[in-house]
UniProtKB/TrEMBL annotation:
One family name in Pfam for this protein: ApbA
Keyword Oxidoreductase in annotation: yes
Protein name: 2-dehydropantoate 2-reductase
Gene Ontology cellular component annotations, sorted alphabetically: cytoplasm
Amino acid sequence: MKILIFGIGGVGGYFGGKLAQTGSNVTMIARRKHLEAINKNGLEVESINGNFKVKPNLVTDELAKVPTPDLVILGVKSWQIQEVANKLKPIISTETMVLPLQNGANNVEKLLEILPKQNVLAGLCHIVSFLEKPGKIKHVSFEPRITFGEIDNSTSERIERLKTVFEKAGITNFNPENIQLEIWKKFLFIATISGLGGLTRVSIDKIRESEYLYDLLLKTAQEIKLVANAKGIPLAEGHLEKAFEIIQNQPAGTTASTQRDIMAGRPSELENFNGFIVKEAEKLGIATPVNKMIYECLLPMEKKARNS
């Protein structure tokens, strides 16, 4: 199977590295110094499960050089999906599978605006990893897992083929009965902590220590659940409780990637997290005052980051 990893950050770098390590035909799209370092020395992955280094079949920033892939794994940020999908159109075939793994609740919908339905899968991943320096990915937490499926939750031969590919690479994977629910469960957790983390600029343990801030976290999550339920996603109280168990168990100093982008003045996934909830709620006639407060307070910084 010819696999294209588009975006070699923490997600694409780790999972692409694992696939390349076990002999899959892997092409990676990287840029600038990261591209130079991988081409010169290979991709280094420092992981809590063991370190490794790989040489992909091809690393480039020119899509014209990429052979038509059987599978594209998207390792970019959610706000980059539509731009990337347009770039992919000339090189994919009717058989190519496009699997988004980024955070966000509407990545599939964004892809479907540009790509044929037959090309699009739904997915997410669980991992805490990041680009430590050009040519090196660092995996620091979570047992890495890819969750994926057909967007209509049907069973298919290609899903079974993907399971085989991931298992050969030693990647834990899960094909659930309801992929949309799994996406929203992850979204519930990450959107809850990201916006307030970016606004307060402190780690999750500091938010937990404040009764006021912790209450805002709870209200953020409750509003997300309201929107999900109104959209027909069966997020339940038990899912909210599970998300807060995870929040309670995060080690001191933990921050979310979107929070780190906001704090560093980089473009972030604000629009795809709290902004998405606010805009969907307005369409549905639902009040989401906490998400709106967080979103509106962060929006001027987001606009400044994008303009620069």
